[in-house]
Amino acid sequence: MESNKSKRKYRSYSAAGLSVLMLTGIVLSACSETGSTTKNSASPSATDAPKAVYPLNTKETLTSWESLNNNATTFYQNLAETPFGKQLAKATGVEVKYIHPNDQQTKEQFNLMIVADKLPDVIEYDWTGRSAGSYPGGPEKAINDKVILELNDLIDKYAPNLKKKLAEDKELDKMIKTDSGKYYVFPMIRNPSGLVFRGPIIRKDWLDELQLPMPETIDEWETTLKAFRDKKGAKAPFSVTYVNGNFEIRDAFIGAYHTSNTFYLDDAGKVKYGPVDPQYKDFLALFRKWYAEGLFDKDFALTDGKALDTKILGGQTGATVGLLSGGLGKWLDAMKTKDPKFNLVGSPYPTLKKGEKPFTGQLDFKYNPGPSKAVSATTKNPELAVRWLDYAYSTQGSLLFNFGVEGESFTMKDGKPVYTDQIVKNEKYSLQQMVSQYTKPNGPYEADERRNWNTYPQQDAAVKLWMNTDAAKHTIPAFLTPTAEESKELGKIVNDVSNYKEEMFSKFIMGKEPLENYDKYVEQIKKLGIDRAVEIYQKSLDRYNKR
């Protein structure tokens, strides 16, 4: 680790950089390959790396800093105690001490840890610099700060499984390296069917009872919400969580106006900032109207996850924007015995015109940065760390990470892994709770296409609806890497813009600020430097496309 001079660099930068908000609501996933550190160098072939043999013959141990899945905490306090952790140690021959940050204080505990003289050997965190919950300045700066290692040579020599995947998938390869060609992480790789997992959700039983069609347009949504208010007594017909300035509506409803709640790509592929578009004012006018009429939650600014649970399950709310498992599946689970008639389903992203394809929606990428692991610059045994991490990308490692322990959590049927009854038909615990003990729901490995954690047909149907958008065309890649100077400048601009935008967002919707002042609001955001931020993102995008 670098001296206190480096630590001071991190502290001084973090005040601005931690607030860099490149994108809100895109989920990601990818892999990387090794090669030289020059951007245009050829990637190594998959046949170059030596074969890996497990378990490794070692008495050395490793330390790993990573979050423990919330479902797993029902049963264990440390990953090493779980059936998954024990089997991983047995299979790799490596004993690991896991350090788990508090789930509510991950960023704060990461910031405290990162300035220490000795870091854990591997660290599971978002290194992209794309949001407040990632490393400020991104991976290039993390490497320059001597916090994490450049992995090119290490992957080339000691990670044949990951190296093979990167050689076979150039898109993934591009995602997990910097503009200068440096690999920095062992990635979580999402499967194609796992890229969409959030969208509009509505009470289907209420629609049926009121003989209403599934709403598709903004006008149909307004009719539906009025019926929920007047005929079902819903106090907050439509509600979403709003935590730390993160409005979980994301781009639902906003996208109907062909804009976004953050940075996006227009039809020509150019970077734009949605909240200053003229049409964004139309979205604000809609939600201002719905707020005044009691269609949109009067307490939206105070609604966190627990509050939304109460509103959904208590009949106060009939529609929201939520997650596939952590929302739709969770709420169906909670009500399946209490109220058999209770039925939630996914609904299409709203549009202005009937039959129009939604402008955007939630869409993840292959590479999911948050659950990916970097090797710290202070590790004494980088070779062992890399060999241990590479196991997850092997055939046997993939089975463990995705399905767990053979004979306990899964069996092979017709050559395919299938979860056992104790996992899928457990009378006491949900599927998600059970798999959290035997697998690693999120982490540095490739999610298996055969893995399906949906427990209701409503979830499968929701994904099909939510996939039907033009999000792929209008979503900015989440792995842009501004230069160190650009990042520093960007951090201050986006921090200032985001704070002001969120303040005015609430005021506009609540009626505390007249919409006639929208042009003044846009003018102030421009004074704060949003045009320069767009310019930086555009340059970063151009470099990314040339990788």
From TrEMBL:
Domain of life: Bacteria
Keyword Signal among UniProt keywords: yes
Keywords: Signal
PROSITE patterns listed in its UniProt record: PROKAR_LIPOPROTEIN (PS51257)
UniProt xrefs under InterPro entries: Bact_solute-bd_prot1
Signal sequence extent: 1-29
SUPFAM superfamilies, sorted: Periplasmic binding protein-like II
Gene3D superfamilies: Periplasmic binding protein-like II (3.40.190.10)
Name of the molecule in the record: Extracellular solute-binding protein
UniProt organism field: Paenibacillus chondroitinus
